[in-house]
Amino acid sequence: MISGICLGNIGVDCQDAARLQDFYAALLGWEKCELYECLAVRSQDGVVFLFDPARDYDYVRPVWPEMPGRQQKQMHFDFQVDDLAAAVAQAIEFGAVKAENQYGGEHFVTFFDPEGHPFCLCAK
């Protein structure tokens, strides 16, 4: 292990950084901020999601489940919640889209954020 190593920031590629910042701030209750010339959200514990807008390439939304020849997901967040049903309703209210394909039974629900990145809400 590298002495003193810890998780710093999580970079999320996107087309519309402001839209993702608003979405994740609402979903997680994290503070909106700007770091390294990127819009971001930060937890009270210091975890940061940096939203890096496509500047020199065309952002391609991932598909899930994965399909040959299509842009695959490059990350997948699992967020644990106390009340899964209530969290599902709130996520939809904030702009999440429930995935057509669900594999988690009563344990987790898969969504897409406004830029198409999959994430799950998971029962604790």
What does this protein look like?
- The chain is α/β, with parallel strands linked by helices.
- The protein is built from 2 helices and 8 strands; from the N terminus they run βαββββαβββ.
- The mean pLDDT is 92.
- The protein has 2 domains: 7-58, Roll (2,3-Dihydroxybiphenyl 1,2-Dioxygenase, domain 1); 60-124, 2,3-Dihydroxybiphenyl 1,2-Dioxygenase, domain 1.
- The two termini are 29 Å apart.
- The strands form 2 sheets. It has a 4-stranded mixed beta sheet, with helices on one face. Strands 5-8-7-6 form a 4-stranded mixed beta sheet, covered by helices on one side.
From the structure above, extract its key features.
124 residues; alpha/beta; 2,3-Dihydroxybiphenyl 1,2-Dioxygenase, domain 1; 2 domains; four-stranded mixed beta sheet; 2 helices; 19% helix
Offer a concise description of the structure.
This protein has two helices and eight strands. It has a four-stranded mixed beta sheet, covered by helices on one side.
Assign the CATH architecture of the largest domain. Roll
- Could you describe the largest sheet, including whether it forms a barrel? 4 strands, mixed
**Backbone shape:** globular
Radius of gyration from the CA trace?
15 Å
Task: Fill in the CATH topology of the largest domain.
Answer: 2,3-Dihydroxybiphenyl 1,2-Dioxygenase, domain 1
Total DSSP E strands:
8
CATH class membership of the largest domain: Alpha Beta
Q: Compute the separation of the termini in Å.
A: 29 Å
Q: How would you name the CATH homologous superfamily of the largest domain?
A: 2,3-Dihydroxybiphenyl 1,2-Dioxygenase, domain 1
* Structure annotation, total helices: 2
